[in-house]
Amino acid sequence: MCEIAGLAGADAVRHEHTVGAMGASQSHRGPDGTLHAAAMDGRAVLAMNTLLIVDPQAMPGPYLDRETGVLLAFNGEIYNYRQQAAAWGIPLDARESDSHFLLRAWARIGPSCLDGLDGMFALAVYDPRVGKLFLARDRLGEKPLYWRLDGGRLAFASEVTTLTGYGPAPLVLRPEVLAIETPVGVDTPFQGIQLLAPATLLTYDIATGSLDQHTYWTLTERQPFTGTYREALAKYSVVLAEQVPLRAPACDFALLLSGGLDSSVLAYLMRPPVCVTVRYPGQDRLDESKIAATIARDIGAELVVVEPDPIDFTTVLPHMMSALDYPMGNASTFSEYMAYRKISDLGLKVAIGGLGPDEFLMGYVRQALVLFGADAVLAAGLDAYRPLAAKLMHPAGEDLDPAEAVTRLVLRGPDAEGRIRDLFADAMEKAGGDLARALTLADLATAWRPLVMTSDKLASAYALERRSPFLARDLVELSYRLPQGHKICHPAEGKRILRDAAKALGLPREVWGSRDKLGFASPVPSWLNGKLAGWADAQIRTALTEAPAAMRPLLEGGLKKPGGRFDRTRMQALMAAAWFCDQTVRSAA
Q1: Residue 566 parent element (H or E)
Q2: What's the pLDDT tens digit per position in 46-55?
Q3: Do the bridges between strand 153-157 and strand 2-8 make them parallel or antiparallel, or are there none, so unpaired?
Q4: Which of 256, 364, 369, 381 has the lowest tally of Cβ within 10 angstroms?
Q5: DSSP string, 199-244
Q6: For residue 357, what are the CA distances in angstroms to 231, 354, 486, 533?
Q7: CA–CA gap between residue 577 and residue 589 (Å, rounded)
Q8: C-alpha–C-alpha distance, residues 461 and 356, integer Å
Q9: Where along the chain do its domains lie?
């Protein structure tokens, strides 16, 4: 994994020093070399921070094709690059990487090469033959890429704060942050800076200053799977067994093993030498370490147990928020951060995690509530989710529209303009009447962004490459295509097809038969109302003294009485306070 930054414009080469500084500001993400290079015509300068995973002697980027002048800065991994090189007749030496393949592929066939890539990536290509800068992200947005257009030049970077250092970018509190704890779409909390959308190619014509964005892949174009469940299970099991091991690096790596279904399947298929789990003493409901120990023993892996405490949280919060760039609504943020820190301490460079099945195979209780209704979910033994189910209460005889139902379940604050509900209504329409597929699209439009971005940003803070094998293109497309009954046929048993695949793999019954999803959830919200209440109040009040008016509602919400188990308002306010303080320090510097 590497990180990228750069500038394109008629006078870009005059700002080569600026691009060098942009790259240097991200050096923690690529500690094996930070370099920059100007295009042959001087109209683009690209920087790249390199993290060497397999070959410590590999040359850092950016990469130049001398015959065509095409210049590439690349972040990520293309898992099928050798297969595609053979298919396209692109020569590769034994020690050459996916970056060399991508450079030659782009020089030969241009942006259409994106269709053949399976992996996680953010890339920048300047092609002097057409005088254009191209930016692109992978299909599910695993690797971040931000951009801004200012003064006749386009600047981009892997970290949004790299671009705030390029020029003024006032803070903006997007309404969605109050509603669901995170910006949506391409918005960021910085005016004038956008996140490039997943599966998007941006083209900037330097001569005309024109800009075009094109979506090169969409899930909704996939045709529904029409076979029987037995046929689906056979196909899914084959794709799972073929694709997941391809994401294992050639070097030693660690698996984030919660003890749940997703990470346990990865353990059996990838056989990591090290598994890392997070446990909170005294928090029995969140403790899956016994199952994690069983899985690790079965595959012969070392199990490393991390046990964070409240003091750890107060100590790491500033660095955690600095790494995130801005607050994101993810309940497992602290647990992930502590796991990555431990993996880094172990001297490893790659961390594997289980993102994906919950969104694509109906693994969340909120999805079951929409599909089956509150009564059915509670009757299935998930009584702990009664406060969540209560959000679906409505007058007798009045049907609750699916878009309205899912909106009620995810809202954590006001949605005065109905933006979140509109997103869900749009997802329902795009799914063509299939409610399970609509719920997947709804998640991808809202909750997915903070999940995938948190994983990348926190891992990168410790110079780790984060890989998510369930996001293999073939696996994602097949999962989306499956009918609802193949994904969930009982309110308490989502991810049906993955459960059955796990059973066939020989995983213990307590894994594939478990009904409740825990993951790496943490007790931080309860700490903030207990042991850390005074400290949290002080942090929020300090931020309030200098925060702009737009941020005050968010911060003030954290000083109010909590609204129950599913209320993260205080956590959100505290993270916003830490983020604002970090921005203040950066501005002063």
Answers
A1: none
A2: 999 988 886 7
A3: antiparallel
A4: 381
A5: TEEEEEETTT--EEEEE---GGGSPPP-S-HHHHHHHHHHHHHHHG
A6: 19, 8, 13, 35
A7: 19
A8: 22
A9: 2-217, 228-360+447-512, 365-438, 524-588
Contact criterion met (CB below 8 Å) for 475 and 238: no
pLDDT tens profile 89-107:
999 988 889 999 999 999 9
What letter represents residue 376's amino acid?
A
Cβ atoms within 10 A of the Cβ of 518, count? 15
> Token digits for 263?
């990470």
Is pLDDT at 309 greater than 90 in this prediction?
yes
Amino acid, single-letter form, for residue 584: T
Q: Residue 109 and residue 125: Cα distance in Å, rounded?
A: 13
Q: How many whole angstroms separate alpha carbon 125 and alpha carbon 65?
A: 11
pLDDT at 361: 98
Residue 161 contacts residue 178 (beta carbons within 8 Å): no
Phi and psi angles of residue 504, each rounded to the nearest 5 degrees, phi first: -65, -30
Is the pTM higher than 0.90? The answer reads yes
pLDDT over 90 (residue 553): no
Q: What angle do CA 561, 567, 568 make, to 5 degrees?
A: 100
**Closest Cα to residue 541, out of 582, 580, 586, 583?**
580
Bridge-based pairing of strands 211-215 and 146-150 is unpaired
Contacts 24+ apart (CB under 8 A), 546-551: 546/580, 546/584, 547/580, 548/171, 550/171, 550/172, 550/173, 551/171, 551/173, 551/576, 551/580
Q: How does 126-141 read in b/e, with b if 16+ C-beta sit within 10 Å?
A: bbbeebbbbbbbbbbb
Whether pLDDT at 150 is above 90? no
Joined together, the tokens standing for residue 249 give 């690096």
Q: Name the CATH superfamily, with its identifier, for domain 228-360+447-512.
A: HUPs (3.40.50.620)
- The CATH superfamily of 2-217 is Aminohydrolase, N-terminal nucleophile (Ntn) domain (3.60.20.10)
Is 467:77 a contact under the CB 8 Å cutoff?
yes
Kindly report the three-state secondary structure assignment for every residue of 315-327.
Answer: HHHHHHHHHHCCC
